[in-house]
Amino acid sequence: MELFFLVFLAALAGHILKTREQQRRIALLGQALGRYQIEQLMENLTDGYLRWLGEDDAERKAQVWGVLEGTEQALTGQFTSFAREFQQTEAPLAQVSKLPFALPFAQQLLPGYRLFDVRKAFAIHARGIEASAQNALGLSPKAKAYMMTAELYLMQHTCHWFCRSRTVASARLAARHQSSYEQVLDAVSPQTREAYRALTGV
Asked: Has this prediction a pTM greater than 0.85?
């Protein structure tokens, strides 16, 4: 009974420490993103792609696509600025555990190879979003929209991973967008996928 009580106290303490650390990360990222409209632009863009795909009239379809291109550019500019500003975050605050679950004091407990720097991840996402907006691979409009959507979903996954854990981020991705982590990673550009995997080890 005494052993059970000690285990319970240790689990409770770990949960409290984990929650506090996650709250600090959420506040840090929220403050950095608060100056931008990235989430709103992302929602407008992904919803717009669906409207464009469902549009039958060619003229109307072209008009919608023109609006979407403007949204892509606005989103690219804002996320690039955010990623550049987030580079100023102190290194210890930017370290993320590669473990699938949250671990309190991971930065202090885990060796460097079990961590990755989220500042570098955001830089990878910024390059991927910009390349997709510019259609660097010369894709058809439908394929471009699909790849841009994947780039945005992967970026959102990284935000949730930073704030919570990889497992929670993947669960939210499935719940919000009915897409698996593996599907999204397969759908981004080869350049994003290679750089992301090299950084995170997935």
From this structure: yes
